Amino acid sequence: MRFNLAFFASIIAFLLSVPVQAFSSSHAPIAISLPAFSKECLYFDMNDENDALLVGYQVLTGGNFEIDFEIIGPDGNSLTQEKGKKYADFLLKSFGLGQYSFCFSNSYGTALKKVEITMEKESQNDAKNAKVSEEDVVANHAVEEIDRNLNKITKIMNYLRAREWRNMSTVESTESRLTWLSLLIMGVMVAISILQALLIQFLFSSRQKNYV
What we know:
single chain; transmembrane; GOLD_dom_sf; transmembrane helix; Protein ERP4
């Protein structure tokens, strides 16, 4: 029991002593709406050659859930392109300092599409080369393992939430189509009934005239 208390105490002391910049800073997802045949871009400034950026997106609603994605470097050249994707993840390392553009295009169908984007900046830990005690090393490994597990859980939850959004969008689209189909069937039935009544009335009226 003493070992457990000492271990957790060392983790807490390590968390309090290490600067916040040593860990990857998580950002809340960004949601954008893409009308049909439109293009939206997000921008990020890379100020350090050692920095890396985790970029991911998921199409939540709209049509076939497919969009085009492109990353443009500071020099204006295209670094990567994705065509007709529902979701993707990228690890962007520095291709030069400056402003990077992340562009999303809705070129498939005429439906409005909702896209959720996550960006997470990762920086190298400058304290790795510093001399630390054995307890700090153990605490560091434990914190890194917890951070990796939390990232895995977050990705799984985001994927499941995106699947739920897509399923709900499909259900709503199907309900709308069924509603219009039911109205069409009702209109056809009413038209057929009116035609039948007019035909019977015509036949009886023409027969009475022949007998007279």
